Amino acid sequence: MRQFFSFFRCSIKSGFCLPVMLALPILLPASLPASNGIAGDWQQDKIVNGVEFYHSIQSCSGKTVVLLKIINKNKYRVSASWKELFVTKQVSVKKEGVSGRKELALAPGETMAGSCEDSSNRKLRVLPEDVSPAYAATVQQFEYSNLQVTTVL
Questions:
Q1: What is the pLDDT of residues 9-32, one digit of tens each?
Q2: Among 78, 60, 77, 80, which residue's Cα sits nearest to residue 69?
Q3: Do residues 76 and 151 touch, judged by C-beta distance below 8 A?
Q4: Alpha helix positions (H), the chain
Q5: What is the DSSP string of 20-32?
Q6: Which of 32, 12, 35 is nearest to 24 (CA)?
Q7: From the centroid of its chain, how far is CA 96?
Q8: How far is CA 107 from its chain centroid?
Q9: What is the DSSP secondary-structure string of 69-95?
Q10: Residue 46: enclosing H or E segment and its boundaries?
């Protein structure tokens, strides 16, 4: 172990320390897992007609939930609709959720995001029973399916 740390020894004369120290913040985040339970830890999934779709798998009150975030980058109102696919600890193949097609209207530039604390928009917070009513699903992967974005006149 001591040999490993000796790799990081350097002298001011060699100038080796500075590049290594500058590179560490860039290299370390790439090696961390995609979802680590921190609020705001969003993974971008797709962009369709100027609308960005994100998700985050979180633990809320001891349950594994999927939080959704949708951003309308357009200068006009849109309607976004989608279905959801899951891979769970219990079922290792993609399975469609029981909620069916979901739909939201977004104003120009509007961001809508689910959270553990706010349950006002259930379309943006997927609970274990929304994945399968037969068991308490532990979601490991999430995917949007059949995304559609249309202009609202």
A1: 444 445 544 444 434 343 333 333
A2: 80
A3: yes
A4: 2-6, 17-31, 128-131
A5: HHHHHHHHHHHHS
A6: 32
A7: 18
A8: 22
A9: EEEE-SSS-EEEEEEEEEEESS--S-E
A10: strand 43-48
In angstroms, rounded to a whole number, what is the distance separating the alpha carbons of residues 75 and 120? 25
Looking up tokens 């193949």 gives: 93
Q: CB-based burial of residue 22 (10 Å sphere; 0-12 exposed, 13-18 middle, 19+ buried)?
A: exposed
Burial class (CB in 10 A: 0-12, 13-18, 19+), 100: exposed
- Joined tokens for residue 24: 């560490």
How distant is the alpha carbon of residue 21 from its chain centre?
Answer: 29
Residue 37 confidence (pLDDT) above 50: no
pTM of this prediction? 0.72
Tell me the pLDDT tens digit for each residue of 120-139: 889 999 999 999 888 889 99
The total of other beta-carbon atoms located within 10 Å of residue 94's CB is: 13
Token pair recorded at residue 90: 């219990």
Q: Which residue from 117, 18, 21, 8 is spatially nearest to 61, judged by alpha carbons? A: 117
The amino acid that residue 97 corresponds to is G
* CA–CA distance, 106 with 127 (Å, rounded to integer): 23
Residue 13 CB partners (closer than 8 Å, separation 6+): none
